[in-house]
Amino acid sequence: MGATRTPRDRWIEEGLAVLAAAGPDAVRVEVLAKRLGVTKGGFYGHFADRDALLEAMLDAWERESTDEVIARVEREGGDPRTRIHRAGMLTFSDDRLLPIDLAIRAWARHDESVAERLRRVDNQRMALLREMIGTFCPDPDEVEARSLLAFCAAIGGHFLAADHGGRTRAQVLAHAADLVLDRPRKDTGSQSVSGSPPSHGRRPATPHRSPEAVPR
């Protein structure tokens, strides 16, 4: 009987693990073969070359981080705010997808084809945010701003090194989410900047002002 060939998906999965840990330059056939405990010969039964593997890795990441996330969000249901929270948790609070996502963002800075792929994925994510936020926010400009803020908080929180005056990063992000999603603030036990206890419930709405009225 012939030797069992290592499945194609295992090469892709191992490639994504190496990408997340060490970047695209570390994704080499000999490295993956050693990690899988096989010879390099089996690789070429699935892929023409290393570039074909990298493309397959990006395909797998895009499918899992968009199509599969959106399908799960729709399947599990809930109100728009719950769906936004679930999509964010699946994408940016997961030990699997988050490291891959961050590695691809770094890779995209030096590879235009990867940057185009990332743009497509981010556009799908922004479209989901617009759709959900638009159900409780009627102003298109505000919908776009809230969507951007939500996305920036989800990604930027992993790079920011600042402290938060006695608050944890999780507390601040939770409050930021309450503001962006226009929902009552949860009591996290933190103190406000002035030292007074945290307020509860929704803050009074700020009157809308035209661009000319905004201080510059």
How would you describe this protein?
This protein has 216 residues and is an all-alpha fold. It is 58% helix and 0% strand. The protein has helices spanning 8-22, 29-36, 50-76, 80-92, 97-108, 112-133, 140-156, 169-180. Helix 7 (140-156) packs antiparallel against helix 8 (169-180). It is elongated, with a radius of gyration of 22 Å. 19% of the residues are buried.
In short:
The chain contains 8 helices and no strands.
The end-to-end span amounts to: 77 Å
- Which stretches are low in confidence, meaning pLDDT under 50 for 5 or more residues running? 190-216
Quick one: overall form?
elongated
- Percent of residues in helices: 55-70%
Key attributes of the depicted protein:
216 residues; single chain; mainly alpha; 58% helix; disordered C terminus
List the helices and strands and how they pair.
Blueprint: H1 8-22, H2 29-36, H3 50-76, H4 80-92, H5 97-108, H6 112-133, H7 140-156, H8 169-180
Helix pairs in contact: 1-2, 1-3, 1-5, 3-4, 3-6, 4-6, 5-6, 6-7, 7-8
